[in-house]
Design goal:
One of its GO terms (molecular function) is pyrroline-5-carboxylate reductase activity. The model has no long low-confidence stretch (mean pLDDT 95). By secondary structure, the chain is of the alpha/beta class.
């Protein structure tokens, strides 16, 4: 496989750090420079192969130097901090450098307005399974991003999972499914665990049953290549216990519940984008 472009991650917190570890694990990175505000966070990344870790507490110009070093610059700071950071690094970016947003709710137009009319920008929406190399990341190209630029960014995010290219007007909708989706799964596991405890199992056994059932079902789905509905049908024997349980769940109008939940998440995403 080809080498990845040189990369800078400005704000290598939880998501930026997850992508960093994926890039390093791929053994395809040429150079990676990361910044964090504190010495402690920077020190925790110093031992990674091929990584230059900068503490902004010691190097006030660290973001500018990191940005100047890279072909792909990932912006991983909190959304409210993005405009000031872009203003800081704009004069230092290489010609043709690709700037990628990890910040929820910050639009491509904001990046292009601050970085200038020639800026190459993509917006991304990874999710937390990036920490274990199982992310779903949505990417949206900006005005000047070419197919080659998109391909380079895709290679970076494929080190932590699956990548989908979507137009920017779908990125918030994507966030309500894959971005928030892990929380929905964790909630279902919580509730199934509570149900097991209610049937007399201790907490340890209840957790094991609920968690490993979800993990096993997901692994089976991935390995089989079958549709979820078909796998459900195979578990649901006619007039059996599972059929009775599924009937209760379907009577709860789960399709409506999930539609309403994701609609609520989308509405909040639009509020955040509007600054409210």
């Amino acid at each position: 496989m080809s080498s990845l472009p040189s990369i800078a991650i400005l704000g290598a917190g939880s998501m930026g750090g997850a992508i960093l570890h994926g890039v390093v694990s791929s053994a395809r990175a040429s150079t990676v420079t990361v910044t964090n505000r504190t010495r402690e966070k920077a020190a925790a990344l110093e031992g990674l192969a091929g990584v230059t870790s900068i503490a902004l507490a010691d190097d006030a110009d660290g973001n500018a130097r990191a940005a100047a070093s890279a072909e792909v610059v990932l912006i991983g700071v909190k959304p409210a901090m993005v405009p000031d950071l872009l203003t800081e690094i704009a004069p230092h970016l290489r010609a043709g450098a690709i700037v990628v947003s990890l910040a929820a709710g910050v639009t491509i137009s904001t990046f292009e307005r601050i970085l200038g009319p020639d800026a190459v920008v993509l917006r991304s929406m990874p999710n937390t399974p990036a920490l274990v190399g199982k992310a779903v990341t949505g990417i949206s190209p900006g005005t000047n991003a070419t197919a080659a630029d998109v391909a380079r960014v895709r290679e970076v995010f494929e080190t932590v999972g699956t990548v989908l290219e979507v137009p920017e007007d779908r990125i918030d909708a994507l966030s309500t499914i894959s971005g928030s989706g892990p929380a929905y799964v964790f909630l279902l596991i919580e509730e199934l665990t509570k149900a097991a405890i209610g049937k007399g199992f201790d907490e340890s056994d209840a957790r094991t049953m609920a968690e490993q059932t979800f993990i096993g079902a997901a692994a089976l789905l991935e390995a089989s290549g079958e549709e979820p509905a078909e796998l459900r049908r195979r578990v649901t024997s006619p007039k059996g216990t599972t059929e009775r349980a599924i009937a209760v769940l379907q009577a709860a109008d789960l399709d409506v519940v999930f539609a309403e939940a994701t609609d609520a998440a989308l509405a909040r995403a639009k509020e955040l984008a509007a600054g409210s």
